[in-house]
Amino acid sequence: MSQIQSEIVAGVGLITLDRPEALNALSLQMVIDLTAVFTDFRDDASVDVVAIRGSNKRGVFGAFCAGGDIRFFHDAAIAEDPALEAFFTAEYSLNNLLYSYPKPYVAFMDGVIMGGGMGLAQGADLRIVSERTKMAMPETNIGLFPDVGGGFFLSRCPGHLGEYLALTGQMLVGGDALAADLADGLVASDSMPDLWDSLTANTELSAIERFEQLSDLVSLPSPVTAPAWQDPQIDSIFALPTVMDMINALEQADGEWASKTLACLRQRSPLMLHVSLEQIRRGRQLTMADDLRMERNIVHHCFHTEHLGRSGTSSETVEGIRALAVDKDHAPIWKPARIEDITRDMVEPFFSSPWSEEQHPLKDLD
């Protein structure tokens, strides 16, 4: 049974993620099916607008997408299953398709939206959140990095908020996403179904006119309270050149925000903090396609870290997923264990391509 539902109504291509028992976490087959649907809608002259939503166990909305299926990542890495490499190639290709999508595209980001869900939504022309939206790129907590184009869209957040979000994995709740420029409109969750239906309801208007009406409605200025985590020190501390500079500054800073942020960073993978910072800094200068090619290199090295003598069960990512989602002991054994022990020689190889330019799996992205 397909976990992607799609239909065309009144010139609008409608997509529903339908794997509610897993918070719509993306499998390889879901990525393949999504790519096919988005491509078909792109090429279908009867489709003028595309919209996507998630489902939960009680029906539609309430959950968008919790990201990639990390238990699959764990098991596939241990089994040396080639489907793992195929997943990232397919997912990043889909991310690029959505960022360059030629038709108006709306993402209804109700409920949980993390990792791969952000990759589906951040390329949308209209990104709608509700008060129950819980948005994050928490990958450093599982020994990974904020991929699916995170180097591109996080680096374009205001100031140095992108570095902060990438390294800490801070959750954005509701209107927090507006403050980070990661959403365009905040609406009440109980209005989501009516807004979805408005895209297809008034057929006296064209699909494009209905999209424009929806955009005008949800993009009205909303009173957004600055979130408690958005401390004035973010820009100065997370603009510093290295992770260790940030740690030193946080140790010297006063206040609860600094102490909480320091404690958070101390729990994350030291290695992937350094890799993620480098990713965001490089991504700020890249196109989305080039950023995704860079991230494809990085994610290969996450599971094949030969320069550290690690792969499979001993990789940082497999260990992080084990601790969070498999054994659930929440006690990952990071290697190296301390932020202070990371060197440039450990970080730089993540950015070297294991493929020649002609053989790169994303060579055709533009």
UniProtKB/TrEMBL annotation:
* CDD domains in the record: crotonase-like
**What terms describe the molecular function in GO for this protein?**
3-hydroxyisobutyryl-CoA hydrolase activity; enoyl-CoA hydratase activity
EC no. given is 4.2.1.17
Biological process, per Gene Ontology: L-valine catabolic process
Q: Provide the alphabetized UniProt keywords.
A: Hydrolase, Lyase
**According to the UniProt record, what class of enzyme is this?**
lyase
Where does the source fall among the domains of life?
Answer: Bacteria
Please list the residue ranges annotated as the Enoyl-CoA hydratase/isomerase domain: 12-351
Q: Which Gene3D superfamilies match?
A: 2-enoyl-CoA Hydratase, Chain A, domain 1
Q: Which NCBIfam families match?
A: PRK05617.1
- Protein name in the entry: Enoyl-CoA hydratase
Species per Swiss-Prot/TrEMBL record: gamma proteobacterium HTCC2207
- Source organism lineage? Bacteria, Pseudomonadati, Pseudomonadota, Gammaproteobacteria, Cellvibrionales
